[in-house]
Specification:
about 230 residues; Methane Monooxygenase Hydroxylase, Chain G, domain 1; 2 domains
């Protein structure tokens, strides 16, 4: 009767010695596979650390944009991020299973979001996908997330009752959404449906808030004009 024995690094030698004349190359195969997986795991951990750093710095860059920091410094920051993304991809080129995993895609997506937001706010134009050297999927995902950042811009301008500027940001949101809504593909190709739904909801909410505050501002102006006319007659 055969008994299945779990092979572990601790009992490996004793298990092999049960059959000293069988499978003489098993030790060599085990060590070769283990060495390769150890090497891959080392790269995976390093790649995860780099990816998290890119994601963290991308978020910091977007926050700096909202704080209206020096555009030249922001541009230096986004270029540094692009170099970090390039280094991450170069490191994983010999490990295609890791390269095409979520490690690289997540970093590229956050980088694209930061790049798109900065480009639109500083130049008024949307950057070309090839300029960012990322996958088109990462570019589209980053673009969809950028819509939420422009909602934040719109809300910031509403605090100062700048309805015109808020509507400008709403127009940017709508233009970006028009790109998203034209991409009707299955989730197996690009998981965009949920992003489309979120973007639509964000735009509708922003449009409603602008309309409400705009109406309140008109009412405020009307009341003020009436009060001024009454005072002038006294």
């Amino acid at each position: 009767m055969w008994e299945l024995v779990e092979i572990t690094p601790e009992n490996f030698k004793s298990v092999v010695m049960v059959f000293p004349n069988a499978m003489k190359n098993i030790t060599k195969i085990y060590r070769k596979i283990k060495a390769q997986l150890d090497h891959k795991e080392k790269h995976r951990q390093k790649a995860l650390s780099m990816s998290r750093s890119i994601i963290r710095h991308s978020g910091g860059l977007i926050s700096a944009v909202h704080r209206s920091e020096d555009p030249e410094e922001l541009l230096k920051g986004v270029k540094a991020l692009q170099r970090d993304v390039d280094r991450l991809k170069t490191m994983l080129k010999k490990h295609p299973d890791l390269y095409y995993s979520n490690i690289v895609e997540s970093a590229e997506q956050e980088f694209c979001e930061a790049y798109i937001v900065l480009s639109i706010l500083t130049t008024g134009s949307l950057p070309e996908p090839d300029e960012l050297k990322t996958t088109y999927t990462a570019y589209i995902m980053g673009l969809s997330d950028a819509i939420g950042e422009f909602r934040r811009c719109a809300l910031d301008t509403l605090k100062t009752r700048n309805i015109t500027k808020a509507n400008d940001f709403l127009k940017v949101m709508e233009d970006l959404y028009n790109i998203l809504i034209g991409l009707d593909y299955p989730a197996g190709l690009i998981a965009i449906r949920r992003k489309q739904d979120i973007a639509r909801g964000v735009i509708e909410k922003t449009r409603s808030e602008i309309a409400i505050i705009g109406s309140n501002e008109e009412l405020r102006n009307t009341i003020k004009e009436f009060q001024d006319s009454v005072i002038s007659r006294e």
